[in-house]
Amino acid sequence: MAGDSVEPGHGEPALSVRSLTKRFGDRVAYQDVSFEVGRGEVFGFLGPNGAGKTTTVRTLGTLIAPSSGAATVAGLELTPENGVAIRQRIAIMPETPGLYLRLSVQDNLACFADLYEIPDPPDRIREVLEAVGLADRIHDSCGALSKGLRQRVSLARALLSDPEVLFLDEPTSGLDPAASKDVHGLIEDQRRRGVTVFLTTHRLDEAERLCDRVAILSTTLRTIGRPDELRDRLFRRTLTVRTVTPLAEPSAVFGPARGVTGWRADSPGTYVLDVSDITVAAPETTRALVAAGADVLALTESRHSLEDVYLQLVEGNDGEPAG
Amino acid sequence: MRISKRRVVAVLRKELRDLRRSGNVVYAMVVLPLVFLIQPVIQVFTIPSDGSSTLHHEHTLIYMLAIPALVPAALAAYSIVGERVQGTLEPLLSTPVQPKELVLGKALAVFLPSTAVAYVVFAFFIAIVELFAAPGVAPALVQAPDVVAQIVFTPLLVTWSIWIGMAISARSSDLRTAGQVSILVSLPTVAVTSLIAFNVIPAGLHIALAFGAGLVVLDRLGWRAASSFFDSERLITTTK
């Protein structure tokens, strides 16, 4: 599969998943999933509800056992014997913060620091709380914090052990735009620190903005690659031309233009051109329109979002490129 | 794999902090022992001094073993299902903690306060009897074998009761159901101690040894059972 090569880190991948499958009785959670994630990469894992994203994270986090297939997590084979060692190298931030609401922020983090057997917990707790901007709330009860702040505490908890691989399961679910922006900033910080981030999300704008590569899962892996690669792979690149009055002979204008592989009239005075190379087709078309004496209103490149890619793969036909 | 003392203590400390701030749990720890104080107190204070000789043939103090047989189950019933309900189990299991460490930490967090409560209530009862009961009642009631039985059997019963509570907690998806079922399943143990107290089962050294040996065996089996019931995949993936 194109685009499934490991990047941007070097050497051994942080995650290597090979034909992994998980069934609960007759129900298939995910099937035959294979991919690799490079060290230091921010990898988006997208899919609709029930696609198997959280189950995949739980499997890679050694919380549940795969039905078949194999994986390497942070350099260790995913086996029951390696469970503790793997969990020492990774951290999972689940969708719900899962904090002890009757305990203070400090008590919550102190418990987890001891579970990870971190040396000098007070210093480390201070560091991670400073990283998430909550150093001044250390003595607050978690129950008194807003949802956004609880999410930050949850992220601080995930950072405590300085993990090699950080799994974030819907980290901005239910957060307002400002709180989501804060979380995005924290993920960017982790990228800068070289932490491998495995991000499951429904939010395609989030994935597009944060992720080096994305995979789309709907029980089986539908595609994997850079967001712009996926767009190019799934959608023809198009130019939209709008003129004041319809062209008398559009085929005479667009047909000979280099870089234009086809065209259709969308509405009177609006034409959609399939192009092979936008940098050639756009100036060629402009010159042809001017030569034909057309009154040009606009000439724009049609941009497909990651959402278009997602919908095409999850809901539509993932074979032929669409327009 | 070795059990990490630090992780066990981390769970223990967290549980004790959480218990302290949980109104319902503190309420259960206070009210249940008081309920089991009512009957012996009434009995002791309604006996005139000339009737105290009947106490020589009874084992009223043994009745108070119902406290270590029941209170821990109610607390332990909360331990695992409580984590599931509040959504804290998955983050906890995502750490390097092993099921045995988790079970041990949680068991200790119930064992320590439950044993302390049982001993304190027992000491409180003895003090009341010594100070306020009619003359002759205290020497007749406070018999050395019963006191020894209380001291020895309390931790054994607490441990057994914890395993019952935790096993039920691990299989439950609802807090209230877990608490009620745990108390229900603990009742046979309470019945045995009550039958001994009321002389239906004749108390004696052999009975005590058999009872003690049985509890030691049950406690060991309970530890294994509670650990094996702790199946992280089932606990995380089954509906809350």
In words, what does this structure look like?
- The complex is a heterodimer of chains A (323) and B (240).
- Chain A has 323 residues and is an alpha/beta fold.
- Residues 1-5 and 318-323 of chain A have low confidence and may be disordered.
- Chain A folds into 2 domains: 15-231, P-loop containing nucleotide triphosphate hydrolases (Rossmann fold); 236-303, 2-Layer Sandwich (Alpha-Beta Plaits).
- A 6-stranded mixed sheet of chain A has the order 6-7-8-3-9-10, sandwiched between helices. Chain A has a 4-stranded antiparallel sheet with strand order 2-1-4-5, with helices on one face. In chain A, strands 12-13-11-14 form a 4-stranded antiparallel sheet, covered by helices on one side.
- Chain A has 11 helices and 14 strands.
- By secondary structure, chain B is mainly alpha-helical.
- Chain B is built from 11 helices and no strands.
- Chain B is elongated, with a radius of gyration of 19 Å.
- The model of chain B has no long low-confidence stretch (mean pLDDT 87).
- Chains A and B meet through helix 2 and helix 3 of A and helix 1, helix 5 and helix 11 of B.
Task: Jot down its keywords.
A: 323 residues; alpha/beta; 34% helix; B: 240 residues; mainly alpha
Quick rundown:
The complex is a heterodimer of chains A (323) and B (240). Chain A has helices spanning 53-60, 83-89, 105-115, 121-131, 147-159, 177-192, 204-210, 227-234, 250-254, 278-291, 306-314; strands spanning 15-24, 27-37, 42-46, 68-73, 76-77, 90-93, 165-169, 196-201, 213-218, 220-225, 237-243, 260-267, 270-275, 296-302. In chain A, the strands form 3 sheets. Chain A has a 6-stranded mixed β-sheet, with helices on both faces. A 4-stranded antiparallel β-sheet of chain A has the order 2-1-4-5, with helices on one face. A 4-stranded antiparallel β-sheet of chain A has the order 12-13-11-14, covered by helices on one side.
